[in-house]
Specification:
five-stranded antiparallel β-sheet, elongated, Jelly Rolls, mainly beta, Virus Head Decoration Protein, Chain: A, 8% helix, 23 strands
């Protein structure tokens, strides 16, 4: 068919009343709620799966043989007096109602299949109200599109996004995965090696008298690796001097979950069993809450990621004490040099609630 080249007489209907072909061997009473089933034929309103509300039947249709052999006239607009199966009050004005049978409606908590048929527009008494059926008719039109066999309008039509990234079968599952990602995503706070200072007897100082700034003449030393550019801190065999750095916990941290300290460590020999040890303080008066040494922070010759978990019971209650001082040092290691290649914190992000 080609585009118009001249005026055309428009054929239209007001849409207030429309014919609905009735299902075979089905009786429809005038004044009853009218639906179509999954096959598209008219049936009495009911709390049954798969029905779509079509309006109020204006005509009586006797039971006849053959789908579509009889037709009801359905009114699709207006306020209709309806009987409520469960008592209501004036406060229910504006609530959605759903089919119980072909003459009774109820609120969503009292039905099984949720066949939407209107909105309470006017309270009459505890078991009667005028309901506006037009919102349900408009929803029925949308439901028809969603049920379209071509899936042109269905959420399941969404199968991929730009770049070929596969997503779940429908939008609801996609949102569920996004929500799960938000709930489980972790935050990371890197602590540069250059931010650590040497701590001796609670004072940031070393032999050079430079306020504890680590360098090639301090203990431990800040140095490169084998004439390369990679940076590391190195404790000579037997040295256990402390180093310390301050970290500010971010506002998005969930203070009801554990905080994990990560270390990249190694050593030059295997003469001693050595753990990376430390102390952790929050605020200015909190006690040390660094965990005891264990398998998770045992240093090996091969560079490896080690962890120490600060329990949620030791975290501050709020951001006021979110300044954290982290002290790091190796355990006794008379025969091994110990190396620290990197440090960072891992935390759980809190969900936004407003």
């Amino acid at each position: 068919m080609t585009a118009l080249t001249q005026d055309k007489k428009l054929e239209y209907k007001e849409g207030v009343e429309v014919p609905v072909p009735i299902k075979t061997l089905t009786e429809i009473f005038a004044g009853s709620f009218l639906c179509v089933d999954a096959t598209g034929w008219g049936v009495p309103g009911d709390d049954a799966a798969g029905l779509i509300f079509q309006g109020i039947s204006r005509t009586y249709v006797p039971s006849t043989s053959g789908n579509g052999s009889a037709t009801a006239i359905a009114r699709r607009r207006g306020l209709v007096k309806a009987t409520l199966a469960t008592a209501i009050t004036q406060a229910n004005v504006g609530d959605n109602v759903f089919l119980v049978d072909d003459q009774t409606v109820d609120l969503i908590g009292n039905v099984n299949n949720g066949i939407f048929c209107g909105v309470i527009a006017e309270y009459i008494d505890t078991t009667h109200a005028y309901i506006d059926i037009e919102p349900a008719i408009k929803q029925a039109d949308v439901a028809s599109h969603i049920a379209d066999g071509s899936n042109a309008h269905a959420a399941s039509a969404i199968s991929a996004v730009a770049g070929g990234l596969a997503i779940p079968a429908n939008a609801q599952l996609a949102l569920a995965e996004i929500y799960q990602h938000i709930k489980s995503i972790q935050g990371f706070i890197p602590i540069p090696l250059t931010s650590f200072r040497e701590l001796a007897a609670g004072v940031f100082i070393n032999a050079a008298g430079n306020g504890g700034i680590l360098a090639t003449d301090t203990t431990p030393i800040l140095t490169n690796i084998a004439d390369g550019d990679a940076m590391r801190l190195a404790w000579a065999a037997g040295n256990t001097d402390q180093i310390a750095a301050q970290v500010i916990l971010p506002p998005d941290i969930d203070l009801t979950a554990n905080l994990v300290v990560h270390f990249l460590c190694s050593k030059d020999a295997d003469a001693n069993v050595v753990h990376i040890d430390g102390e952790a303080y929050f605020g200015e008066s909190d006690g040390d809450c660094f965990p005891a040494a264990g398998a998770s922070n045992l240093i090996t010759q091969v560079k490896a990621e080690l962890t120490a978990t600060i329990a949620l019971a030791d975290l501050p209650a709020n951001q006021t004490d979110a300044n954290m001082t982290l002290v790091v040092m190796p355990e006794a290691h008379a025969g091994d040099a110990v190396y620290l290649h990197g440090v960072w914190l891992e935390y759980k992000k809190k969900l936004l609630t407003s």
